[in-house]
């Protein structure tokens, strides 16, 4: 779990573009959900259908696939940026298990959101799950599994990272000094990185905590009552609960809330990267100013 070293200084790695990637990925995620929602012709009485049901048929199917594919790529690049810019080093020094959980969770979220976007529910899903229908197809099951990978991965990443954001204290001062410094192999100059408790801004920590609190309530419900889970559960009225309009609306609403919380969490990394870049720029300027005075 040690980020790869190269001949670039930390300040060169954290470009303005890199800082914007998490926010851009979040915007694509929100934009995709909003786009397919507006394009989909909703049945009467259905106001907040589960996200998965928005990508079954054309033309929203193509928007769903392209939108979540781009979102997944940007999310993957976001995780890579965090890895390359030493975000996982302080977490690893605090707890190697916590760092591993955060890293693996991020990868799982990338695989899950991209996979469920590419492999959507079957176009005839709602017809198939009605009494007398053929039931769920292999495509439906695979979509459900990929959605579960996203929810589990996102939860693992967000909970691990948020725990460290508040509880990650260096074990001793020497470790803190050694940990938050980076020497450029080309120049030999050393630029100190922020202390552990300063890695996340106060605004970012509060925002991440709010996202975790919301997801803790909504995510389990969203996954527990996923349309594919209820497909073969016949209610008292003789039809599958997924065809009950009230239940469909509740399921969809919890999905929007849970996914929205995870989207905002990943987007908040832009705040952290911009803060880190600004502090490194200031420290670099102080180093240059000190050298000029010595000369």
From TrEMBL:
InterPro entries in UniProt: CWH43_N
Protein name: Frag1/DRAM/Sfk1 family protein
Keyword vocabulary terms for this entry: Membrane, Transmembrane, Transmembrane helix
UniProt entry tagged with the keyword Hydrolase: no
Chain ranges of the CWH43-like N-terminal domain: 44-274
Keyword Disulfide bond attributed: no
Ranges that cross the membrane: 21-40, 63-83, 95-119, 146-166, 247-271
Top-rank taxon, per record: Eukaryota
